[in-house]
Task: structure prediction
Amino acid sequence: MTEPITIGVDHGYAAMKTAHCSFPSGLAEYEHEPYTQKNVLCYDGKYYVVGSGRQPLQQDKTVDENYYLLTLAAIAKELEQYRLFTASLCLSVGLPLSWVGSQRESFRQYLMQNETIRFRFNGNLFQLRIVGCKVYPQGYAAIVQQLADFEGEHLLADIGNGTMNTLYMINGKPQQGKMFTEKFGTYQCTLAVREAFMQKTQREINDAIIDEVLITGTANIAPADLKIIKGVAAEYVRDIFRRLRERGYDDSTVMLYITGGGGCLVKNFYKFSADRVKFVEDICAAAKGYEYLAEAQMKAEAKG
Result:
């Protein structure tokens, strides 16, 4: 095995991300090899197709093997970038801000449950050794490389599919008593759209259409249907800002940084000042931040 490689993995409810890859977090198990060869993970005698659907919202990601299997797929996708199939790895991952303290060790042990691993992904055989795993605050990692530019008071809002994490910072320094995690991710908006659409039309609507409207602000559907979706989305975003203000957000004195999928909703359905609200556009920013934090920590430890 070569020198350990640091790989950052962002375990989202809707999508898994590494520094260079992103794919939906769905996982389907097969007893026999599926007809497709794309995104197929073969591990421990079972076959899994990854990349369709999403994971259910659960506070503890270690309750089943799904995120372990998705981690293997994420590692494989990242290593495929370099045509590397045998490696020694140090994982760098994250958890919602308020859950890091209580779940860090259990999540670390979960991801390190096997020191050596053999599996196939997309037909390629991977032989890996997991030598370490570091766990950092989710959201914070997405902006950690920009902190030198943070003067004054900032609020980070990481709006993912399952949770919304908020963290106050003064001159780039996190304020430990002012970090919060709420189960108010963008999927709550999707569920609200479904319910409103059924109540007003007595019809169901596909999540793919809802997602298209939330991400782009429109879709090729009847104007009346589009109006329903946009109305619910606008109310959801207003609720985001109500919650932020309850946490002390003041748009005249605090710079707001938004990361995660919720940024699209704010852009499309809320009037904001471009001078006071900034967006982290890179969906892989957190995974890159995990790698940055891990490498910085290892350098510091090496210096003693």
Summary: The chain has a mean pLDDT of 94. The first strand starts at residue 5 and ends at 11. The two ends are 26 Å apart (CA to CA).
